[in-house]
Amino acid sequence: MHHIDVRIEKDIYDVNNTIADNNTKLLKKHGVRAFDLLGAIGSGKTALIERLVPLLTRKGLRSGAIAGDVYGDDDFKRISALGIPAFNANTGKECHLDAHLVEHAIEHLPLHDIDILFIENVGNMVCPTDFRLGAEKRIVIVSSTEGDDVVNKHPMMFRDCAIGVINKVDLAPLVGANLDRMELDIHRYNPGMPVFRTNLKTGDGIAALLDTILA
Description:
With 215 residues, the chain is of the alpha/beta class. The protein has a single domain, classed as Rossmann fold (3-Layer(aba) Sandwich), CATH 3.40.50. Helices cover 42% and strands 18% of the residues. A seven-stranded parallel β-sheet has the order 3-2-4-1-5-6-7, with helices on both faces. It starts with a helix and ends with a helix.
Protein backbone atom coordinates (compact mmCIF):
# COMPACT_ATOMS: atom_id res chain seq x y z
CA MET A 1 0.00 0.00 0.00
CA HIS A 2 2.84 2.35 0.95
CA HIS A 3 4.48 1.94 -2.51
CA ILE A 4 1.22 2.83 -4.28
CA ASP A 5 0.85 6.00 -2.16
CA VAL A 6 4.40 7.06 -2.99
CA ARG A 7 3.86 6.42 -6.71
CA ILE A 8 0.60 8.39 -6.79
CA GLU A 9 2.31 11.24 -4.97
CA LYS A 10 5.19 11.23 -7.47
CA ASP A 11 2.70 11.24 -10.39
CA ILE A 12 0.88 14.25 -8.89
CA TYR A 13 4.16 16.18 -8.56
CA ASP A 14 5.30 15.19 -12.07
CA VAL A 15 2.04 16.40 -13.62
CA ASN A 16 2.20 19.61 -11.58
CA ASN A 17 5.80 20.29 -12.60
CA THR A 18 5.03 19.75 -16.29
CA ILE A 19 2.24 22.35 -16.09
CA ALA A 20 4.53 24.66 -14.07
CA ASP A 21 7.13 24.47 -16.85
CA ASN A 22 4.44 25.33 -19.41
CA ASN A 23 3.38 28.30 -17.25
CA THR A 24 7.02 29.48 -17.21
CA LYS A 25 7.23 29.27 -21.01
CA LEU A 26 3.94 31.11 -21.52
CA LEU A 27 4.89 33.92 -19.13
CA LYS A 28 8.32 34.23 -20.75
CA LYS A 29 6.73 34.42 -24.19
CA HIS A 30 4.71 37.45 -23.03
CA GLY A 31 7.69 39.02 -21.24
CA VAL A 32 6.07 38.59 -17.81
CA ARG A 33 8.24 38.05 -14.72
CA ALA A 34 6.30 36.12 -12.05
CA PHE A 35 6.97 35.89 -8.31
CA ASP A 36 5.34 33.40 -5.94
CA LEU A 37 4.64 34.82 -2.45
CA LEU A 38 4.46 32.29 0.38
CA GLY A 39 3.69 32.76 4.06
CA ALA A 40 1.19 32.17 6.81
CA ILE A 41 -2.16 33.95 7.11
CA GLY A 42 -1.48 37.47 8.38
CA SER A 43 2.25 37.45 7.61
CA GLY A 44 1.84 40.34 5.17
CA LYS A 45 1.66 38.83 1.66
CA THR A 46 -1.13 41.14 0.47
CA ALA A 47 0.41 44.14 2.25
CA LEU A 48 3.66 43.40 0.43
CA ILE A 49 1.89 43.56 -2.94
CA GLU A 50 0.19 46.82 -1.85
CA ARG A 51 3.63 48.30 -1.11
CA LEU A 52 5.44 46.99 -4.20
CA VAL A 53 2.90 47.92 -6.89
CA PRO A 54 3.25 51.74 -6.54
CA LEU A 55 7.06 51.42 -6.55
CA LEU A 56 6.89 49.32 -9.72
CA THR A 57 4.55 51.85 -11.33
CA ARG A 58 7.12 54.57 -10.61
CA LYS A 59 9.71 52.44 -12.40
CA GLY A 60 7.37 52.21 -15.40
CA LEU A 61 6.53 48.55 -14.76
CA ARG A 62 2.95 47.26 -14.93
CA SER A 63 1.84 44.81 -12.25
CA GLY A 64 -0.74 42.04 -12.13
CA ALA A 65 -1.68 39.54 -9.45
CA ILE A 66 -3.28 36.19 -8.71
CA ALA A 67 -4.83 36.03 -5.23
CA GLY A 68 -4.84 32.49 -3.89
CA ASP A 69 -7.20 31.69 -1.04
CA VAL A 70 -9.12 28.66 0.16
CA TYR A 71 -12.33 30.69 0.14
CA GLY A 72 -13.54 34.26 -0.20
CA ASP A 73 -12.21 37.35 -1.95
CA ASP A 74 -10.80 39.57 0.83
CA ASP A 75 -7.25 39.66 -0.55
CA PHE A 76 -8.52 39.90 -4.12
CA LYS A 77 -10.54 43.03 -3.23
CA ARG A 78 -7.48 44.67 -1.66
CA ILE A 79 -5.35 43.87 -4.71
CA SER A 80 -8.03 44.98 -7.20
CA ALA A 81 -8.23 48.32 -5.35
CA LEU A 82 -4.67 48.97 -6.57
CA GLY A 83 -6.10 49.26 -10.08
CA ILE A 84 -4.15 46.33 -11.51
CA PRO A 85 -5.41 43.26 -13.39
CA ALA A 86 -6.08 40.52 -10.85
CA PHE A 87 -7.68 37.09 -10.65
CA ASN A 88 -9.17 35.43 -7.56
CA ALA A 89 -8.10 31.77 -7.36
CA ASN A 90 -10.09 29.90 -4.73
CA THR A 91 -8.81 26.40 -4.01
CA GLY A 92 -12.04 25.17 -2.35
CA LYS A 93 -10.38 23.08 0.31
CA GLU A 94 -6.76 22.73 -0.78
CA CYS A 95 -4.21 24.52 1.39
CA HIS A 96 -2.04 25.59 -1.56
CA LEU A 97 -2.16 26.77 -5.15
CA ASP A 98 -0.98 24.33 -7.80
CA ALA A 99 0.30 24.86 -11.34
CA HIS A 100 -3.07 23.97 -12.91
CA LEU A 101 -4.92 26.62 -10.88
CA VAL A 102 -2.29 29.16 -11.91
CA GLU A 103 -2.56 28.06 -15.55
CA HIS A 104 -6.32 28.67 -15.32
CA ALA A 105 -5.78 32.08 -13.67
CA ILE A 106 -3.24 33.16 -16.31
CA GLU A 107 -5.85 32.54 -19.03
CA HIS A 108 -7.98 35.28 -17.44
CA LEU A 109 -5.22 37.90 -17.26
CA PRO A 110 -4.15 40.37 -19.98
CA LEU A 111 -0.55 39.19 -20.12
CA HIS A 112 0.34 41.81 -22.77
CA ASP A 113 -0.46 44.50 -20.14
CA ILE A 114 1.61 42.95 -17.33
CA ASP A 115 5.37 43.13 -16.69
CA ILE A 116 5.44 41.79 -13.12
CA LEU A 117 2.98 39.15 -11.90
CA PHE A 118 2.58 38.42 -8.19
CA ILE A 119 1.13 35.03 -7.30
CA GLU A 120 -0.07 35.19 -3.72
CA ASN A 121 -0.23 31.64 -2.44
CA VAL A 122 -2.70 30.35 0.15
CA GLY A 123 -1.75 31.33 3.73
CA ASN A 124 0.08 28.19 4.84
CA MET A 125 3.66 27.38 5.82
CA VAL A 126 3.67 23.71 4.77
CA CYS A 127 1.58 22.69 1.75
CA PRO A 128 2.69 25.24 -0.89
CA THR A 129 6.32 24.09 -0.73
CA ASP A 130 5.87 20.98 -2.89
CA PHE A 131 3.93 22.63 -5.70
CA ARG A 132 5.92 24.70 -8.17
CA LEU A 133 3.75 27.20 -10.05
CA GLY A 134 6.09 28.40 -12.80
CA ALA A 135 7.28 31.59 -11.10
CA GLU A 136 10.80 32.96 -11.54
CA LYS A 137 11.44 33.31 -7.78
CA ARG A 138 9.70 32.31 -4.58
CA ILE A 139 9.56 34.83 -1.78
CA VAL A 140 8.73 33.69 1.76
CA ILE A 141 7.41 36.18 4.30
CA VAL A 142 7.15 35.58 8.04
CA SER A 143 6.21 38.04 10.73
CA SER A 144 7.63 38.56 14.21
CA THR A 145 4.14 37.94 15.62
CA GLU A 146 4.34 34.28 14.53
CA GLY A 147 7.10 33.79 17.14
CA ASP A 148 10.83 33.66 16.57
CA ASP A 149 10.74 29.86 16.29
CA VAL A 150 8.57 29.99 13.15
CA VAL A 151 11.54 29.46 10.81
CA ASN A 152 12.81 26.48 12.77
CA LYS A 153 9.37 24.86 12.55
CA HIS A 154 9.19 25.15 8.73
CA PRO A 155 12.68 24.47 7.33
CA MET A 156 11.48 23.21 3.93
CA MET A 157 9.74 26.51 3.21
CA PHE A 158 13.04 28.37 3.55
CA ARG A 159 15.13 25.81 1.65
CA ASP A 160 12.85 26.16 -1.36
CA CYS A 161 12.61 29.96 -1.59
CA ALA A 162 14.95 32.57 -3.08
CA ILE A 163 14.23 35.60 -0.87
CA GLY A 164 13.21 35.88 2.79
CA VAL A 165 11.22 38.67 4.42
CA ILE A 166 10.81 39.18 8.17
CA ASN A 167 7.84 41.52 8.58
CA LYS A 168 6.27 43.41 11.49
CA VAL A 169 9.71 44.19 12.92
CA ASP A 170 8.12 47.01 14.94
CA LEU A 171 6.07 44.46 16.91
CA ALA A 172 9.01 42.19 17.78
CA PRO A 173 9.65 43.82 21.19
CA LEU A 174 5.95 43.58 22.07
CA VAL A 175 5.74 39.85 21.39
CA GLY A 176 9.24 39.05 22.65
CA ALA A 177 10.52 37.89 19.25
CA ASN A 178 14.26 37.87 18.57
CA LEU A 179 14.71 38.99 14.94
CA ASP A 180 18.39 37.98 14.91
CA ARG A 181 17.42 34.46 15.86
CA MET A 182 14.90 34.34 12.97
CA GLU A 183 17.54 35.50 10.51
CA LEU A 184 20.14 33.05 11.85
CA ASP A 185 17.62 30.21 11.47
CA ILE A 186 16.88 31.23 7.87
CA HIS A 187 20.59 31.18 7.04
CA ARG A 188 21.01 27.78 8.67
CA TYR A 189 18.52 26.32 6.19
CA ASN A 190 19.40 28.53 3.24
CA PRO A 191 22.84 30.13 3.73
CA GLY A 192 22.77 32.31 0.61
CA MET A 193 19.25 33.66 0.98
CA PRO A 194 18.98 37.47 1.11
CA VAL A 195 16.78 38.42 4.09
CA PHE A 196 14.93 41.72 4.45
CA ARG A 197 13.39 43.13 7.61
CA THR A 198 10.28 45.13 6.85
CA ASN A 199 7.55 47.14 8.45
CA LEU A 200 4.84 47.11 5.81
CA LYS A 201 2.78 49.63 7.77
CA THR A 202 5.46 52.29 7.14
CA GLY A 203 7.14 50.81 4.06
CA ASP A 204 10.52 50.39 5.80
CA GLY A 205 12.80 47.95 3.97
CA ILE A 206 10.67 47.77 0.83
CA ALA A 207 12.90 49.60 -1.67
CA ALA A 208 15.89 47.33 -1.02
CA LEU A 209 13.65 44.25 -1.21
CA LEU A 210 12.27 45.34 -4.59
CA ASP A 211 15.77 45.79 -6.01
CA THR A 212 16.58 42.20 -5.06
CA ILE A 213 13.29 40.86 -6.41
CA LEU A 214 14.00 42.48 -9.79
CA ALA A 215 17.74 41.64 -9.83
